[in-house]
Amino acid sequence: MIRKAMTAATIAVSIVMMGAGSASANPDGPAANLHDMAACSNWYNSKFKFHIWYNSGQSGSYRNIGYSVYDFNALRPGDGAAYPLRFCTKNGASAPWPGSGLKIKNNAASGENSHYKYMAEVCFNSGYKGVRDKMAPYQHISQFRYVYNENASFRWV
User: Which DSSP category does 8 fall into?
Assistant: First the structure.
């Protein structure tokens, strides 16, 4: 009887623990968003499934984001410091793309969610607060309606 109860409890705890993960729950997320090569690879084949652009119409410089970002100006990868998330530096025929190297916070105009399962939200305030633009799986927004150049955080929901 005790053995059956312990086995049932172990199975229940295992099921709860397996279900605890999500696209946004990763302690290495800030470091990956800052330093992973996928952040600045071609957006259409990046393993990171949210793409944010400097200009409307998915143009100019961009950044691929894999994990939720509590504050675009203060990613904390675990070294005790906070770093801003920036648009990737991309060089065109005669000059860098518009937005190259600029901070994402309050500078993004459009986005695309290429995740097959999760909704993406770009929020006006840090901490996933305030008005937001939402994108269903495989949806893009050519120009943010609520957070155009006023964006501070991103999350998967």
Answer: H
Mean pLDDT across the chain, nearest whole number? 86
- Chain segment 96-151, per-residue pLDDT in tens: 999 999 999 999 999 999 999 999 999 999 999 999 999 999 999 999 999 999 99
Beta strand spans in the chain (E)? 50-55, 59-65, 110-113, 120-125, 129-135, 140-141, 153-156
Please report the pLDDT score of residue 94 as a whole number.
73
19 is a domain residue: no
* CATH code: domain of residue 79: 2.60.20.10
Nearest Cα to Cα of residue 114 among 46, 35, 40, 34:
46
Helix (H) or strand (E) holding 11: helix 2-18
d(CA 155, CA 157): 6
Say how many domains are in the chain: 1
